[in-house]
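Schema walk-through. Below, the input block comes first and the output block second. Nothing else is stored per chain. Lengths vary across the set, and this one has 368 residues.
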Amino acid sequence: MTANAPLLRSSGARTSLPLREDAGCEDTLDTAFALGWDHARHGVTPSLETLCAHLRLQQGFRAGRSCFGRRTQPAGVHVRAWLELRLHALRRRITFETVQLTPHFLARIDVACCPVTREPLGEPLGPEGGRRLVRLRGDAGFAAGHVVVTGARAAQARGELGLTALLQRQRTCETEAKVLDGLDAAQWARWSTLCSLVEPMPHARAAGLPLCVLPPNRLRLFNPVQALQTLLSRALLHRTPNRRLAALRERLPAQSLPAFDAWLTSYQARVAALLPQQPDEAPYRALEDAWQAREVLARWRRFATRLDADRCERIVLECGEGRVRWLPDAAATDGWALEQGGVRAAVTARPGRSGGQRRQLGLFDRAA
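--- output ---
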C-alpha cells in the first residue's frame, strides 16, 4: 500500500509493529505518527482534512488501525480532549509532552469553575470550547506542571500575555477603575498570580505578591515563599486549623513571630468577614479575596521578608504532610522544551533538561 492509498483495512493486513501500547510512538520521536497511532488505539478517527494535512499522522493512524483492529481502548471525555489538544498543538507547532500530560492528568486538573472569572464551566475540555487548557509559561510547550484549565473568556482575554503584561493590565484596571478585554482588576490579578507561581523570581519580589488564587492541582511552584503562602492559607480550611497553624509557627525564627502573628490576625479577620458572602461550596474564595486587603498584604510583606527562600523551603517540606513533592529543576521542567521556546521541530526530539539545583514545589491533592 502506498503512502497516498485510501484509508482501507484489509482483513489480511499485517504490521511489523509489536503489539505494545507504546510501540512505534514515542520511540520513533515522531509526534504526528504517535498521534495517529493513539487515535487508532482509542478508536477515534481524525477528520479527513487532518489526515490529508499530516501524512505521518495518516501513516500512524493506518498502522495503528492495522495493529489494533477492533481491540481499541475506551475513549472517554478526557481521552478525546487529550487527542484534540495534541492535534491543536501539532497544528500550531507547539510541543506536547505525553509521558506525564495524559488523559488521567487532565482529569485530575479539570475544574468545574474557571479560576480566573469563577464562572461555571459546562462544556467538555478542548482547544476551542468553553473549557480550555492554558499554558502559564509562554516559553514552554504543553507539559505537566504549568498548565491549568480555565474558561474560554479568560483564555481569550489573556492570549499570549506574560507576567509583566498581566501585572500592567491589573494596575491599569485598578487605577482607572475600568475593564480591559472583558476582565476587571480582580480577574487580571488572578491571572497574574497564576503565572507568577511558575515564574522563578527573587525572594523579595515573590514575597510581595498577593495570593489572589490558590494554586490549582498539580501546579509546580517555583518560589518557596509562595508555597508557604499557600500552606498557610489552606490551613484555615483544615478541620483543625489552629493545630496546623501552630505547627507552622513553631518552625519560624523567633524574630519573625511578631510579624507573623500580626499578619495572621488580620488575615483571619478578613477571611471571617468574607465567608458569609461566598457560596457554601466555595469557601476557598474567601481565602483568595482576603489577600486583596491592603493591610493583609502589607503585614504579609513585613513577615515574609524576614525569611529567605531556603527557610521557606524547609518549613514547607516539614509541614507539607504529604501534600508537597520536591523536584530538582531538571525534573520540574522536564518536557517543557524551554531550550526551543516550546516550539516543535519537524521531528520532535526528546525534551531537554534545564540546569540548576534548586528544587521546585508541586502541591497536589492527597486523593489524586
